[in-house]
Fold this protein.
Amino acid sequence: MNAGALREVVGLFLKLGCITFGGPAAHVALFRDEVVKRRRWVTDERFLDLLGMTNLIPGPNSTEMAIHLGYTRAGWPGLVAGGVCFIVPAMLIVWALAWAYVRYGAQPQAVGLLYGIKPVIIAVVVQAVWGLLRSAVKGPLLAAVGIAVLALYLVGVHEIALLFAGGLVVLLARSVRAGRAAVGAVSLTALLGGPAPALAQSVAATSGSLTTLFLVFLKIGSVLYGSGYVLLAFLRSDFVDRLGWLTDRQLLDAVAIGQFTPGPVLTTATFVGYVVGGGPGAVLATVGIFLPGFVFVAVSHPLLPRIRASRWTAAILDGVNVAALGLMAGVAWELGRAAIVDPVTAVLAVASAILLIRFKTSSVWLILGGGAVGIAWRLIMG
């Protein structure tokens, strides 16, 4: 093991865990800025393949990307360090907010901070999508799939369906072109995601114990595909309807805090765990929801060379990669409509894009600067 490489992984993902606002698409964009452009740990092609793998397995995509990248840079110790260092800063921040919430009965606000950060995030995501397109779009077929995924996402088609449809469309198109039948196309998904539904069926909470709390979050982490809204559905079903441990208001507060704090959105689990079971509950809930991601990455990462070497599984991966970029573009459009709401945010977005593209300014400094501008503007405006 290279101790220097491990220190690089620890330093990078601790930093990213503190400043990555904006959700998985923004996280992936920031990861690319750091590991492809600045540090050159991987190429854009390799980065895209890792991103495609995270979309094929359950769990939080951006956290799994951190785990993949840590593994790529520093082996098994890097696999653990990348994920843990990305999760822990957000976990501690959410833990502190949960303590304040329980003690004072109020949700802390970060309106000014997010007001300035969100336009910067839009510029970072747009830059990443544009840069990755050159590696992902290898011909008219992949371009058409990416555009179709973007259009269908914007009219409301579910993102998971679009990801797998993208992979299957490319596979079928290349199969027809080659005049062969694709065999085993579904086996990759079954291999990577197959055990999760069985685990979901086996976990049945029977008492208000910390063990139950851990098992419920382990189940959610093992079967969760999709956005934070999918997480909300799981949490409401288990903690509001079935167990009765939370009210709807507490659940919405938990999801809101997970959204406006940096790092993985799934640290919502830390908040819920603290409200239900104090400090031990916060730890167990966080470990439960993130642990499956480490396992899925450990299993899937060594398979990537074989997947890329096979014509048929490589076609699926190419389709998933370009579909993921279509989804990132759709998310950037939706976030942009919510983030760019007045002349100040428009100037922040345009200025950030110019500084990123023309002057190669670090996205970290732009995010910190955007947050400072947002706080100052809100104070001025009262």
Residues 3-190+298-381 form one domain.
